Amino acid sequence: MSLDAQRVKKDFPILETLAHGKRLVYLDSAATSQKPRAVIDRMVRFYEEENANVHRGIYELGEKATAAYEGAREASARFIGARSTRSIVFTKGTTESINLVRYTWARANVHEGDEVLVTEMEHHSNLIPWQLLCAETGATLRHLPIDDDGKLRIDLLGEYLTDRTKLVGMSLMSNVLGTINPVRTVADAAHAVGARILVDAAQAAPHLSFDVNDLDCDFLAFSAHKMCGPTGAGLLYGREDLLEEMPPFHGGGEMIREVWADHATWAEIPQKFEAGTPNIAQVVGMGAAIEYLEDLGMDAVREHEMQLTKYALDRIFSIGATIYGPMDVHDRGSVVSFNLEEVHPHDMATIVDQEGVCIRAGHHCAQPLMRKLGVPATARASFYIYNTEEDVDALIDALEKSKGWFI
Amino acid sequence: MVHLSLEDLYKEVILDHYRSPRNKGRLDPYDIVLERNNPLCGDEIELFLKFDGDKLEGISFDGKGCSISQASASMMAERLQGASIKDAADLAGGIKRMMAGEEEGDDDELGELIALKGVVKYPVRIKCALLGWDTLVEALEESGKGVPS
To answer: Which is nearest to A274 in space by CA: A305, A301, A236?
Structure first.
């Protein structure tokens, strides 16, 4: 089944609005995606018909709320191939998921003299937590380099993974280069030296079909808001045995079994890690987003984005832009970072905005990667299920215009 | 009041200073140098000041970034060459208030600098326009030469 982007577009009310009086051409889905009517309506319905706290109410309404919330956990587990909903911890997003691992598993398992390995293409959310951990514990942070095509130097893995490595943190898809990383290869190598691997799937989950068992990852994190869902919801997948042995993260209600004045015992996973009232409506919205994507079919999503990205790469290249990251769409997702020599990306983003085209300009929360690329900033267009070749053409026309101003 | 379209703003003033920056490069000798950047977008300014009593004998900048950040610094350095420190601090304060929408800005007093007002319409770019001015205020404070009014 192939994806009809023109039809998909109609599912997104915001895409009918105007920007500066022009058709809104939204090309910043890597920052956050737009939301389909189905997700918006699902959250409204929750508030209008099912709202109550979860895991508490004896009454029917409380059961409805809990069923909606736990239904999202089942959808999430299914979406990533997790064997059990016990592996799915709801968080407010990728950043919180990664920090959860930092404060629980990593604090208990990473010590002075140990090493944490990340890659040179990590988003700050999968870099800063490990910088802080290493500063706190005396462990060393290492960075697996990338090559000139923006791919990981897997050939150097043997050098960077040692018997001191306790954790590998890597993204499945880069938010700047678009590179799709060979997680399974790294996971096998990491496990061979006794390390655990955490996968940042924030960019991958909206665009790629994957299975946590095939990836053989120990932890995996992503957010709802980049995949048609609301902000404030995301998840951490963790291997059940690891989650079982980890200490709790936040303390509070919901995460306890029994409490005395001076001590307490913990709830079963995943509730052990879900202290306090969660973002219930947002999690329900996340479940609806997953179902929306499942209806489209993740393979169809990928196929559509490969075609569109190929078209975009060709057209952006044809106007003389420098493109960062792999040029083969089999190796990359639908974010395209680029620079036009004459036009600084901030100027470019302001000028194309006048034409109704939304692109990102800046360091994309990846300052070390910008330094590696030797640029202070890049422009970035990112495409999703509702984008068409017409949108790419609108971008190119607007870029030509911005070039015209500077020449 | 000025009503520059974005295109006019760029074409008439900003691009002129961006392409042909005034007083760009290291000042030698200088009394104080201060480097500041815009962490959100990576614009960079290195500001050099040379004092002569209560005057700015010399002011220059180096840096890289978008046209608005670099043109604004160029206009600032051109305007404040030989100015009194008090006037420099007052002008910086006035520009900052104008960019915050607290003051209209006086065409006669500001001259070419009024072009920066066109940036107020683009809120995310205001910090680009103010990078040089903020750096100046900080440099004056650090050098103990007085604070802006």
So the answer is: A236
The size of the A-B interface in CB pairs under 8 A is: 45
Task: Check CB contact under 8 Å for B7 and A405.
Answer: yes
Range of the domain at A356: 297-401
Regarding whether A279 and A255 lie in a shared domain, the answer is yes
Q: Is the ipTM here above 0.90?
A: no
Which residues on adjacent β-strands are paired with residue B56? B51
Rounded to the nearest angstrom, the minimum Cα separation between A323 and chain B is 19
Phi, psi for residue A153 in degrees, rounded to 5: -80, 75
**Domain total in chain A:** 2
A365 is catalytic: yes
A346/B65 Cβ within 8 A: yes
**Domains with residue ranges and CATH for chain B:** 6-142 (3.90.1010.10)
| pLDDT (tens digit per residue) in A340-362 | 987 899 999 999 999 999 999 98
- pLDDT, residue B2, reads 44
Contact B66/A405, CB-based, under 8 Å?
Answer: no
> Residue A70 sits in a domain of what CATH number?
3.40.640.10
Quickly state the pLDDT bin for A51 (edges 50, 70, 90). Answer: very high
Does residue B123 have a cis peptide bond before it, meaning omega lies within 30 degrees of 0? no
Contact A283, A256 (CB under 8 A): no
| Nearest-by-Cβ selection for A376 from B10, B11, B65 | B65
Query: What is the bridge-based pairing of β-strands A115-119 and A165-171?
Result: parallel
Q: Are residues A166 and A137 in the same domain?
A: yes
Indicate whether A180 pLDDT > 50: yes
**Is A15 within the bounds of a domain?**
no
Cβ(A346)–Cβ(B41) under 8 Å? Answer: yes
- Arithmetic mean of pLDDT, A74-93: 98
Of A240, A260, A294, at which residue does a domain stop?
A294
- From CA A17, how far away is CA A19, in angstroms rounded? 7
Contact state of B66 with A363 under an 8 Å Cβ cutoff: no
**Tens-place pLDDT, residues A90-106:** 999 999 999 999 999 99
Does A29 map to a domain? no
Per-residue pLDDT band at A407 (split at 50, 70, 90) = low
Tell me which H or E stretch contains A26.
strand A25-26
B68: chain A residues, CB-CB within 8 Å? 346-347
Residue A35 counted as domain residue? no
Using an 8 Å CB-CB cutoff, list residues of chain B that contact chain A. Answer: 6-7, 10-11, 15, 40-44, 64-69, 122, 124-125, 128
